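Technical annex, item 7. During the second reporting period the consortium partners agreed on a shared format for inverse folding records so that results from different sites could be compared directly. Each record opens with the tokenized structure and is followed by the designed sequence. A conforming record, contributed by the partner at site C, is shown below for reference.
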């Protein structure tokens, strides 16, 4: 486990797997360095996979004040610079769920050194003033299971039947998620979720989703595809929002194909003016 200093001096814990061109993978709400590991291991023979724990997610630090996407963008920039190394190798940026939203913000704010962007079901619908009262109720409960239900139903918009079927998390995991998702909600509530803001992202983008995911995620991806000038789509059959856990081989195969295509195009393109 390594430590990278992010924005405002926040320490970010990072695991690295494999060797090759760097790939930085951002996990979703309540996740950690483990969240992308099953996918990363499928690609470690070709790429150096960087697996950080985002701020507010153990064992990374917190920082002071309310959580914002701008603060996480600074963290991502520090991680990109570390992954690029002294040779300034372009980095493939990947995000899942809330990590996908962070990746979009980071690529829009500062695309320097980003070779490509892959996002799996960014929950842009989880945004805006409607989440203010949700955040208040979330903060008011000290029951991690009740908080998890609030987050799943009222923030992520997961189907009630799916939420009811989810087993309770172990107490320590639930406690860490309660902390992390509360901060996540702060950023969501202050954001407008408009995909049009990302129209300036000009690197190749892969938009991934599960064929069985819940509404309004497919509509969000449609709007993103319309906004982004170089967007590709990948719909994974039989999968929902959790494909990185339920079908890591499938996710890895689609991601590997996209990265190889981007890397091949980069090698064939004329040298960039410096």
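Designed sequence (site C submission):
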């Amino acid at each position: 486990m390594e430590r990278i200093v992010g924005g405002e001096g926040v320490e970010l814990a990072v695991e690295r797997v494999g060797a090759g061109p760097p790939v930085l993978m951002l996990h979703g709400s309540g996740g950690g360095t483990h969240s992308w590991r099953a996918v990363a291991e499928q690609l470690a023979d070709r790429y150096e996979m960087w697996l950080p724990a985002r701020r507010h997610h153990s064992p990374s630090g917190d920082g002071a004040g309310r959580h914002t996407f701008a603060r996480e963008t600074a963290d991502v920039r520090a991680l990109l610079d570390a992954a690029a190394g002294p040779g300034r190798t372009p980095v493939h940026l990947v995000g899942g769920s809330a990590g996908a939203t962070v990746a979009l913000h980071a690529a829009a704010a500062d695309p320097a050194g980003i070779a490509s962007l892959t996002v799996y079901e960014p929950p842009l619908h989880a945004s805006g003033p409607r989440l203010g009262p949700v955040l208040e109720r979330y903060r008011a409960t000290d029951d991690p299971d009740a908080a998890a239900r609030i987050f799943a139903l009222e923030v992520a918009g997961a189907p009630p039947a799916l939420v009811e079927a989810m087993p309770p998390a172990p107490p320590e995991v639930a406690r860490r998620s309660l902390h992390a998702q509360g901060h996540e909600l702060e950023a969501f509530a202050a954001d407008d979720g408009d995909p049009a803001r990302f129209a300036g992202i000009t690197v190749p983008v892969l938009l991934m989703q599960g064929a069985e995911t819940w509404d309004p995620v497919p509509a969000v991806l449609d709007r993103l595809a319309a906004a982004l000038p170089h967007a590709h789509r990948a719909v994974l059959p039989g999968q929902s929002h959790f494909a990185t856990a339920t079908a890591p081989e499938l996710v890895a195969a689609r991601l590997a194909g996209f990265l190889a295509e981007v890397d091949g195009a980069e090698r064939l393109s004329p040298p960039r003016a410096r």
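The longest strand covers residues 11-18. The domain at 2-124+195-266 is CATH 3.40.50.1820 (Rossmann fold). All partners now use this format for quarterly exchanges.
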